[in-house]
């Protein structure tokens, strides 16, 4: 059975035999992709299993090349996991730093920590102002991708923009945002 036929049979197979066959053919590919991106074998195994679990609920009618499609799905799953992991680390770091910023001695609050917090808050406000200056399509894509942790496909569905346009708006928005930030430093 060809890969494409096997994919189409997965959704119709109640026994799971087709999924098992597909898993047997491509577990090494998916795991390899996941290890490449995740850099941790245990995390990679978890992500690889998530990829194959998603296959049960997926419509394969538009899949032309199963191997390339599976590689892309695995890569995107890894990138979403890494983005989620990074935002969690940033939130944890901000929480830990926030606690340190408000440490008090007997006499007063530590001036260095207060200055650092004020600078960070000022930088975040400056970034928000610069995001507002972006072209509307770039602005919405940047906010959805970076602030709301949406993937390209979700942004495509939310905005109605094509996948290529979403990627372009994010890339151009990021570049324009960087230029705006640099210009305000000068």
What can you tell me about this protein's structure?
- With 186 residues, the chain is mainly alpha-helical.
- Helix content is 78%, strand content 0%.
- The radius of gyration is 22 Å and the shape is elongated.
- The N and C termini lie far apart (63 Å).
Topology readout:
Elements (H helix, E strand, L loop, with lengths): L2 H8 L6 H22 L2 H15 L10 H36 L9 H22 L3 H12 L4 H8 L3 H23 L1
How much helix, percentage-wise, in residues? over 70%
- Our measurement of the CA-to-CA distance between the termini, rounded to an integer number of angstroms, reads 63 Å
Secondary structural class: mainly alpha
Which series of helices and strands comes N to C?
A: HHHHHHHH
Largest sheet: none
Strand tally is 0
Summary tags:
186 residues, mainly alpha, 78% helix
Summarize the structure.
This protein is mostly helical.
